[in-house]
């Protein structure tokens, strides 16, 4: 009996030893092929990985989340030197105690490359995602760790910083493309010059974005870092004689977060949404994609609200097109026709020409000639073989060589720059040839026109009921009909959380806005039922839904067109409108009325989930109309958590979104309050550090309310005609809306009464996160007592 017991005990011990070894690689237990290491708690795995759509013979040794369905590599050992066959390659421990990756020819591909006084070592994958090399006898004594050599992902607990003793710097470097994890152009690091901030660099040289200085609670340029409870997300900035580093911590039991340096140069904080089976961004640094240096390469235009944000200028075509396809347009564009530069200025003037291009701002690195005329400015460019563009606005600016960092205007004409093209791009002979081709075909067109008209008449009679079928109060449109009405969806009005919006015109001349929905997986019957419900919701401050299209997987909504576009364009566009205080106040009141209707007067309560200036549209009289209401239910509740703006700011997101508690209408109230601060100031809350002030605007509102100096909150354009009583009401409402405790936030119905002057309201207490921000702004919170 005893021998059987001992045998069983030995089997159990062996099984336990194998189980423990599942997270460990050693000289006796190498890793190859489809094998993988899994951390003791099952959170992370290490093995061989190949990017989606990547070359079949390019494999990498990587760490990824083990409990998340989407393979997400967070660290790669051999990112610049892939192996072709993982089955004949292996990760092992060398004779000198280093971790080494050997290919099929047993050539060294990657090594930890340390000098150690012991060769009895093992590699262990930890539940933090850290892969460590340690002595077999003491695996907590790290000789090397992957956290010190990160790739493009920053995990909680990893240090971003510099060891002052060894000189080693831990920084994060973007991938080259979505299929190539080799080091790209963009990096995130602690400022090596000693200022306590993080910087974004391009190509190890140009600094294109800074977080602002660490205040002890947050970075001055990223106030969102102080917004969340410390038991969910906290930051630690350490400076001592040995090292300077930044580290962040999260509560993995509540939410899974990570920071990633994207191919396009933005650092995004992303959260795993199990309902969507995907990572969802809720903060991007920098917020505007087009502020990233060289993001579109040479001779390309960056458009901020376009899904495909880079496009070649007229006369240029994509260079290295494969890289564009895989998310890296930085290869830029190349000329379709060479410039005719032979040194003869008279011939040169006839050979090359210019076309005007509207831009948000002029490119960098211009040479300025102050005293010449517009004609002489153009000739100065033509007479220089290297000159590629000029601009004239009282003084002459010339650009030589490649044009970079060109940004499209945001809903306005912006400034004009004149791009130089070869003669063939303007050739009259080319126009003549095109005219001859047109003339040769016009006969055939006329010949078939009568037949086409006849067919269209027949088809119109047959399909009119299908194209314009009325379902309830909505029109059911066919996809082809909307494709024609929008010129193949060519005129983009914007991009929101739920899809892109294009301008269209119906046959009777009615202008419409067509929203192509993303991520809708409902069947046709359920979709029609939900849309019909939205169609019955009508209020003067809600955008009117005219109809919809539901064909297979394509789902679209057709809305009335708003000539003054969205509130964000009026307030924050490249050439913002000057809205009087009266107009702003009526906009704030109208939005409140629309939300009150959704929250309190609809047959079924509707939580918008996405209140922000981008979702407030303005008609020709600047009457506000809320857009995108009811869409959260169409695309699923989890999708409505998508940071409410795909450009990456959490500026309107209520704290309860992150804490994981049930969402109520008070989340909309919080978002409304944050937007009301922006209506008052005319600036983005998150851009306060760029506005010539050291104080976050909501903090400034709280200060001025208690000091009785609300007139100081208004700019010179608003002060003369502003009703200070209305200003005080709006400021009080905004502060009440952003309270941490949702139970003490007012309802939208109460907000309407306050703004209309029917109900008075007391001075609000200062919310928790404003207390934190106030400390960094030398603001005494004693004023709230």
From TrEMBL:
Q: Per the annotation, which location comes first and is thus the protein's main one?
A: membrane
Which reaction(s) does the protein catalyse, per the Swiss-Prot or TrEMBL entry?
A: L-threonyl-[protein] + ATP = O-phospho-L-threonyl-[protein] + ADP + H(+); L-seryl-[protein] + ATP = O-phospho-L-seryl-[protein] + ADP + H(+)
Q: Name one Pfam family in it.
A: Pkinase
Localized where?
Membrane
Its placement in the membrane is given as:
Single-pass type I membrane protein
Which key words are in the record? ATP-binding, Disulfide bond, EGF-like domain, Glycoprotein, Kinase, Membrane, Nucleotide-binding, Receptor, Serine/threonine-protein kinase, Signal, Transferase, Transmembrane, Transmembrane helix
Q: Which residues cross the membrane?
A: 435-459
PROSITE patterns according to UniProt: BULB_LECTIN, PAN, PROTEIN_KINASE_ATP, PROTEIN_KINASE_DOM, PROTEIN_KINASE_ST
From which residue to which does the signal peptide run? Answer: 1-19
Q: Which family does it belong to?
A: Belongs to the protein kinase superfamily. Ser/Thr protein kinase family.
Q: What is this protein called?
A: Receptor-like serine/threonine-protein kinase
| Organism annotation | Oryza brachyantha
